[in-house]
């Protein structure tokens, strides 16, 4: 059973965040008008949580400055790490997730992967059930930060950016299929990365602490925006290239 820790449900005009035990058990955000639920995973892909080389790190709550902070330790594979995770809403109304890790050893770590699994349920199984589910539409690593957004078929958009370099991101695909269960942000990632990504983020020096903050901002129905450009002028088509002919498979000819 979970411990009864005060202030584990965060309520503001734009958010309802139930983070009992450290995971997002319930999440509502204001997309335009009313508060709307964001579907979260309830299985092995649940989050938010720390993963070290793919293994989840158990966290427990402590009180700091009136709000709970979830802490844990990882000791295996030559690593001795202290990790923390906390939730808040900043002055701009953005959900802020602070995730930090520290090397507690007096020597540098070997290369390893440190990820924050988000836990959004991004697996779009069938319509209309998936209409309001968020999907990782765009995630992009820059040298100084990561940015992007999750969007739903109904037009909701949840923007995301980090305040520090993020090595990469991971999408958890269904085996031999195209479905994505959820997504993770990789603060550290060994191995070769694309040139545009920050390089060398694969280990910690002796005693090094690496903080990271991710901010989430909900937008309304972005698909309802008016187009900024005038419509294209009407084109003239020859008889074999009219829209009706292009749609008809009978007009296709062998080369």
Largest pleated sheet: 8 strands, antiparallel
Instruction: Determine the mean pLDDT.
Output: 86
Rg is: 22 Å
Helix-strand makeup class: mainly beta
User: How would you sum up the global shape?
Assistant: globular
Percentage of residues assigned to helices:
under 10%
Beta-strand percentage range: 35-45%
Strand order of the largest sheet: 7-8-9-10-17-14-13-12
What does this entry look like structurally?
By secondary structure, this protein is mainly β. It is built from one helix and 17 strands. The protein has one helix at residues 243-247; strands at 9-12, 15-18, 26-30, 35-37, 49-52, 55-56, 60-64, 67-76, 79-89, 95-103, 114-117, 135-141, 146-151, 157-162, 168-173, 180-188, 209-219. An eight-stranded antiparallel β-sheet has the order 7-8-9-10-17-14-13-12, with no helix packed on it. Strands 6-5-11-16-15 form a five-stranded antiparallel β-sheet, with no helix packed on it. Strand 2 and strand 3 (26-30) form a beta hairpin. It starts with 8 loop residues before the first strand and ends in an 8-residue tail after the last helix.
Summarize the structure.
This protein has one helix spanning 243-247, and strands at 9-12, 15-18, 26-30, 35-37, 49-52, 55-56, 60-64, 67-76, 79-89, 95-103, 114-117, 135-141, 146-151, 157-162, 168-173, 180-188, 209-219. The chain has 255 residues and is mostly beta strands.
């Amino acid at each position: 059973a979970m411990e009864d820790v005060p202030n584990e449900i965060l309520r503001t005009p734009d958010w309802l965040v139930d983070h009992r035990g450290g995971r997002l058990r319930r999440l509502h955000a204001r997309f335009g008008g009313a508060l709307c639920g964001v579907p979260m995973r309830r299985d092995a892909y649940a989050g938010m949580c720390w993963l070290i080389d793919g293994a989840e790190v158990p966290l427990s709550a402590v009180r700091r400055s009136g709000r709970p902070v979830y802490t844990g330790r990882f000791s295996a594979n030559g690593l001795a790490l202290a990790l923390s995770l906390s939730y808040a809403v900043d002055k701009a109304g953005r959900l802020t997730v602070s995730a930090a890790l520290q090397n507690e050893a007096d020597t540098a770590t070997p290369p390893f992967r440190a990820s924050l699994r988000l836990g959004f349920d991004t697996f779009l199984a069938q319509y209309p059930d998936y209409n309001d589910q968020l999907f990782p539409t765009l995630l992009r690593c820059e040298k100084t930060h990561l940015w992007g957004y999750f969007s739903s078929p109904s037009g909701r958009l949840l923007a995301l950016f980090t305040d520090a370099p993020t090595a990469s991101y991971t999408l958890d695909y269904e085996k031999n299929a195209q479905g994505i269960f959820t997504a993770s942000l990789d603060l550290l990632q060994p191995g070769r990365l694309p040139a545009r990504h920050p390089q060398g983020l694969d280990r910690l020096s002796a005693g090094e602490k690496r903080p990271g903050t991710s901010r989430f901002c909900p937008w309304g129905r972005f698909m309802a925006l008016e187009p900024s450009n005038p419509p294209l002028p009407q084109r003239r088509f020859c008889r074999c290239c009219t829209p009706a002919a292009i749609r008809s498979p009978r007009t296709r000819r062998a080369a």
